[in-house]
Amino acid sequence: MKKIVLLILLLISSANTYAQTIAETDLIGTWKVKKATAIKDADKPETKELVSGFQKATYTFNADHRFIFDTKSNSKMMLQLVKMFQKNQWIFDKKKKQIKVGFKKEGYSNITFIVKQDGKKIIFLIEDAQIEMLMKKA
Hints:
This protein is α+β, with helices and mostly antiparallel strands. Helices cover 30% and strands 37% of the residues. It has four helices and eight strands; from the N terminus they run H-H-E-H-E-E-H-E-E-E-E-E. The chain has helices spanning 2-19, 24-27, 45-55, 76-84; strands spanning 29-38, 57-61, 67-71, 89-93, 98-102, 111-118, 121-126, 131-137. The longest helix is centred in the first third of the chain and has 18 residues, at 2-19.
C-alpha cells in the first residue's frame, strides 16, 4: 500500500514539475512588464531609475533569436541600454531557465534573465541588477 501511495505522489509531483516547465517557444513574442520590483538597494537613485525604465520597456524575443528592447523612459541609463541591445541575439538555457542576451562571440553576456513560473505568472529576474519583473505577453 505504501508503494502505491508513493507512486501516486511521485506521478503528481512529476506532473506539477512538467506543468511548470518553460519551453523556448513559450518565450517567443513581445513581453511587457506588469510590475518591476528591486530586490536589493531599492532606495538607491540608480536602482529606482532602472526599475522605472524596465517597467516602461518591451522585450521582444523573435523566433530567429533577434532581441529587441525598447523603453518609453528617456533616462540616460535606459537610452544607453537601448543602444547596447541593438542587433543583439538571445538564447534560452532550458536547464538553468535563463535567457541570455548579447552576441554569440561574447557569450551572450549583455543581460541574463532568469525565468520563473509561478502558476500562470511569468517572472523575469535580472540577476545583475536584482530586479524582478512580473511579465505579460503583449
